[in-house]
What we know:
Layout: H1 8-11, E1 18-23, E2 26-31, E3 34-40, H2 44-48, E4 57-58, E5 75-80, H3 84-99, E6 103-104, E7 113-118, H4 123-142, E8 147-152, H5 158-167, E9 173-175, H6 183-193, E10 196-199, E11 207-208, E12 219-223, E13 225-226, H7 237-241, E14 245-246, H8 249-261, E15 266-270, H9 288-296, E16 302-306, H10 315-321, E17 330-332, H11 340-346, H12 352-365, E18 370-377, H13 384-397, E19 401-406, H14 424-447, E20 453-461, E21 468-472, E22 478-482, E23 491-499, E24 504-509
Helix pairs in contact: 9-10, 13-14
Amino acid sequence: MSKESKDYSKYFDFSGAKVLSEDEHGKRIRINGREINILSEPNHRQEKQRGKQSVEVLYDTELPEEFRRIGAGKHYIVYTYGCQMNEHDSETIKGLLEQMGYQATEDRKQADIILLNTCAIRENAEDKVFGELGHLKHLKIEKPDMLLGVCGCMSQEESVVNRILQKHGFVDLIFGTHNVHRLPHLIQEALFSKEMVVEVWSKEGDIIENLPKKREGLRGWVNIMYGCDKFCTYCIVPYTRGKERSRRPEDVIAEVRELARQGYKEITLLGQNVNAYGKDFEDIEYRFGDLMDAIHKIDIPRVRFTTSHPRDFDDHLIEVLAKGGNLVEHIHLPVQSGSSQVLKKMSRKYTRETYLELAHKIKKAIPNVAFTTDIIVGFPGETDEQFEETLSLVREVGYDAAYTFIYSPREGTPAAVMEDNVPMEVKSERLQRLNAAISEYSRQSNDRLLGATVEVLVEGVSKNNDSMLSGRTRTNKLVHFEGSRDLVGTFVNVQITDTKTWYIKGDMISNPIPASDAV
Length: 519
Ligand code: SAH
Ligand code: SF4
Ligand code: F3S
């Protein structure tokens, strides 16, 4: 909470709110009969700021003894929406809850606390959460003592917090992406006061190390940086996640070594823009290529990373990735549009030509590389010709897969006020055409694997058939094949016999293949 007294009417335009008290710790108000303790609320203006203030790394995050019994005998559920960053935050949230004594459950009726870790990237992501809140209202009526919390990117938005305060007064807790480590304190406060507790910091962000994490599955996520400074004109992330800040290399490397020691077979390094890693270090010259080079030497079989922005993809990184080994031949390289004019309006800071140049350079250095991408159709004012340029770029690069989206205006971003004369039917039709093109290329790249032998990390057993296993190639292709469940978590060689658009099928073969031939 900043020391200056805040004019709440600026953020929350409700007339029925009554201020009960106010001091340096926050403000208590009453809306529709519900008392709300606002420790700190989102502030869009502040979220835009990128000051010179250096990033603080906090290591001392031991949970005090008095919090460790709060959840004894109680159960939790965390629902996660959005990207891998959020998935990974949920692992921290679960880790903290378990440190407090809570146990996981999947049964809503058994849960004493339910948290929704939300995503704000598109309107439909937000609609899902409000829909879920509608369902949870009934549970809350049946079980008034259950705590219901909303966190993640939506809670960083003023309009969302306002809407929850106004219309979903049964929520007990709202906390932001910079407040995850404060969860034990906030739960204590909500349990003790029975008021709705709101704590959303809009500061640029620190780095909090040593928080507990409850990792699940074979694949470990490792944050290498937080936040985003790119401010693409359509995107909410720079406002919900704060400024770009990199974890210290020694902390990242220690975490990766620890995961290797625990037997993880695959890790994914996470950041909104991993290629900007290290740009914010003031004392050392150390970039993403250097980090990958160090991780290349660690004994963990597969290393992935996401997401890489085309702009900061430098030659040193390409050189390091070309070493192969545990650095897999898959690069997610979001293009967003194939038109330089649209890219300019999106403020992506590269052109169609420089993107293609980069893709060719990478292909030359890593011949069996698989590219995937993200594409937005129907950006404000996108013309038919500009959309055709996206289709032609898709053909030229030949992506193995792509996430495609219809542009969704996000309040407070520059694109939200750009004139948009493209009707929704046109946008939908473009999306369909784009998806058809992507499917065609995905199918072609799968077909090329017919008869080849691929190295597969076995991830699980098919839901419908106990003897069918599934896993992924180094290039992230989904493979189904017959085998026994004790192979889960191991690497096997599979010869491809059948291909579909989004997966391939094959037979497990016993003779091993040299890692260098694996695809
Ligand atoms: N940091 C990543 C993207 C994270 S968001 C990057 O820059 O590549 C994931 C994807 O969501 C984006 O790549 C973009 O394609 C899409 N997206 C972001 N904002 C959007 C919006 N307002 N409407 C539609 N799609 C959006
Ligand atoms: Fe959003 Fe652009 Fe940052 Fe990606 S790089 S998170 S699209 S602002
Ligand atoms: Fe969504 Fe936030 Fe990720 S907006 S995509 S959860 S960074």
